[in-house]
Amino acid sequence: MTILDRYLTRKCILGILLVMAVLSGLTLSFALIDELNKDHDNYGFSEAMRFLLLTMPRRVEELMPYGVFIGLLLVLGNMAEGGELTAFRAAGVSPWRLLAALLPTLLLVLLVNFTLSEFVSPAGERAGKQGKQRALMGITEQPLVESKAITPEDGVWLRRELDSGYEYAHVGGVDGQGQLTGLLLYRIDDSNRLVEAIFAASGVYLIAEEHWQLSDVNVTSMTTSSSGSRHYQTRPWRNPVSPEQLASQAFSDPRKMTLRQVHQYLSVGDRLKAASLPFELKFWQKILTPLTYISMALMALAVVIGPLRQTSMGQRLTMGLFIGLGFKYLQELFAPMAAVFSVPTVLAVLIPILIYLAVAQRMIARHA
Length: 368
Description:
The protein is α+β, with helices and mostly antiparallel strands.
């Protein structure tokens, strides 16, 4: 690492930390106001703060691309205003060499992002959600062993294709021992007609057979002319989804899942024919995170070299907010294309990144 690399890395890291502190503080403040608006006697300021602090790693992870962009924009802008970038350029340092000097900063940010995404955030989300639920129910004592169960509030929906029609399942909960509770099954024929409704009080997963054994089962069958109900002490449910997948606090929210959990869900989703688009989008967003940071760094460099070379910090901050929001809106614009126009999810995630890379490269070519 050269002197230039070390100098830029030190300044950029400090700038990014400052911006992330401001963004995190604002996010925490707005989230706290939202939490305190919930009218619950047992859920006050201390409980809300504990929940928000435990779930803050996920919020920080989501803010990082924008914090990196604004931080680099402010740092590079100050250097341009002070004549440092002009001195670098006069010494023969090209814009692409400046981008290379930013890579150590991006590597450090990626390491932090990976740590938050794969280790800190999931544990914090699980502990925060469980603590919030205990507070809402008025339970003050802490459990001796951390539960990984989902509650009826966290119940998940599954869809599975059958030989004739579809099966829709709502799993009400999974306890700490992996026992399923409150299962509702609806089976639809090819004509979208409900032919069977099943309620099971509980169920256990048979590892060897790779399906569930349900207990205390009520089955209601319907035909075009009649309907009837039956009760079974036990009944198999041939669904391959495992207790570990159901017991994940984030099973139904890809934003709160690790890359491994998202991939595992998608591998099961193919067999279940589940609606997996949000999970595919999140999977590719995680995979393409390095390219996202590179595009944001290149855009920050292009803006400083080009239109904002001689502007105030306030103007750069305003432009940074608009450009960061623009990237977010592009992501939200192209994500539905994967469903509406059957565009591959990897392309829907990649298009905003490529747009920013192309625009930044064009700006650098014009002003270099």
